[in-house]
Amino acid sequence: MGDADYMYAFLNIVMPIAYEFAPEFVFISAGFDAAAGDTLGNCNVTPACYAHMTALLSTLAGGKLVVALEGGYNLDSIAKSALAVTRALLGDPLPELPRLEASEIATEVVWQVARIQSQYWHCIHASSLEPSDTVDETTIHLPELFKAWRREHALKDFGLYEFPWAVPELDDSYNGQLLISENVNSQHTLVMFVHDFGNISTELLTMKQLNIELENAWIIDTTREFLEWCKSQQFSIIDLNMHPLIPQNEELPSEKERQETAKQAVISAWDNLAELSDAREIVVVAHGTAGLSVMGLIDERFQNFRNKVKAVVQVCGIHTIPSVPKFQTETRKWYFKNSMVIIPKNHPIYLSDSQIQRKHGKVQQSTEERVTKVMRTSLPLIQQFITERVTPRSELVNGTRKRTAPSAPAPAPAPQTYLSA
Predict the structure, then answer these.
(1) Count of the separate structural domains present in the chain
(2) What pLDDT, in 10s, does the model give residues 50-74?
(3) Among 129, 225, 232, 328, whose CB has the most other CB atoms within 10 angstroms?
(4) Keyword set for this entry (predicted)?
(5) DSSP code at position 364
């Protein structure tokens, strides 16, 4: 253990707790057995590091500080370290420390300490101190496991098959996340469901500590009940999960780049599936942050979009509600007439925006606060909104238009006999 490890623990555990405790007097009761050169202590803390730790402690209690040093096992190390501490107490300039990087074992121990201390001190946030594991080809991110699980159940429960992306760049970000029903080209009504994946929930050890462990963590899949209803109505389905793949050992894309890629994914699904299908009626449902991408689709494909789409439903979270571009009057008029936006009851728009209807059309305020619950509790409202805008199921056979039997041909006129005079 050297300077980097001691300073890491000092800055992340000792000093935050000391500031929160706010002592009236500080006693330093410690020795120099960790000092560099002390072979029995077998650590490597330099006099400069001792000086910095002393200076940090002297900022507490108005500088009222008592140093009761216990010594160590090497007289030379003790002398140099004690001198550095004394100079720091007298206000001498602190010696410069080189660039420090804590060891792997030190960061692990500090994190374990933080997990315990976070139960007692508000200033300790264990999640921010969790060591990052090295990402390599053997690493499987937790969301990818959830996606694989969802693909399996989507196939088994709803008959949804994976559809390949036409654009390689989209395959890099959304591989295996575009699913379709086998009747996507035959049904009268098609539902294009664009959604966030779901929320990871876990039991909290404390209000400051979140520990995801398999025995007390779970995934909230908000899509299942809606898909069950679509299947019962014999709608064909395009299901697009908008949680992007996490690049390994690469620079993360900016928020602007991520939004552009998400929009292009929705447009590609529209161009290659929804637009080319034989569906006479299309319903687009967006859940969570996916609403922004759907609004981009409407903006760029409006002329074809409005000819086939009968309803747009946006189930939003606390984020900004996607709005139609100001100066596109025709688009705004169509969207306000054919869309419904559902937002949580505590959405900040109610505190700051007095023109909600003029900006976002038909807005419904949910009784729930969390977007996962908003989708579930609003399902009857969504079902009613869609049902009112598509062909009644009674007029269809297995989800397709009834074929009327051809009318019987008119009987041929009876031959007439003419008598000659």
Answers:
(1) 2
(2) 999 999 999 999 999 999 887 788 8
(3) 129
(4) Chromatin regulator, Hydrolase, Nucleus, Repressor, Transcription, Transcription regulation
(5) E
Q: From CA 44, how far away is CA 6, in angstroms rounded?
A: 10
Residue 44: DSSP 8-state: B
Identify which of 124, 369, 390, 359 has the alpha carbon closest to the alpha carbon of residue 280.
Answer: 390
Decide if 222 contacts 150 (C-beta within 8 A): no
Measured CA to CA, the distance from residue 216 to residue 210 in angstroms comes to 11
The answer on 213 and 180 residing in a single domain is yes
6-37 residue pLDDT tens = 999 999 999 999 999 999 999 998 889 999 99
Q: Model confidence at 411, in pLDDT bands (50, 70, 90)? A: low
pTM to 2 decimals?
Answer: 0.63
Amino acid at 89: L
Q: Is 364 exposed, middle or buried (0-12, 13-18, 19+ CB in 10 A)?
A: middle
Here the CATH number for the domain that contains residue 370 is 3.40.50.1820
| CA distances from residue 73 to 29, 39, 40, 335 in whole angstroms, order as listed | 16, 8, 7, 79
Instruction: Name residues whose C-beta falls within 8 Å of residue 417's C-beta, 6 or more positions apart in sequence.
Output: none
Report how many helices (DSSP H) and strands (DSSP E) the chain contains, helices first. 17, 16
Do both 125 and 150 map to the same domain? no
Same domain, 271 and 359: yes
Residues 75, 220, single domain; the answer is no
- Structural domain boundaries, residue 293: 142-400
Structure tokens at 232: 């019962």
Please report which helix (H) or strand (E) contains residue 259, including its range: helix 255-269
Q: Which stretches of 28-103 are DSSP H helices?
A: 47-57, 75-89
Q: What are the DSSP calls for 95-131, one per residue?
A: PPP------HHHHHHHHHHHHHHTTT-TT--HHHHPP
What DSSP element (H or E) covers 194? Answer: strand 189-195
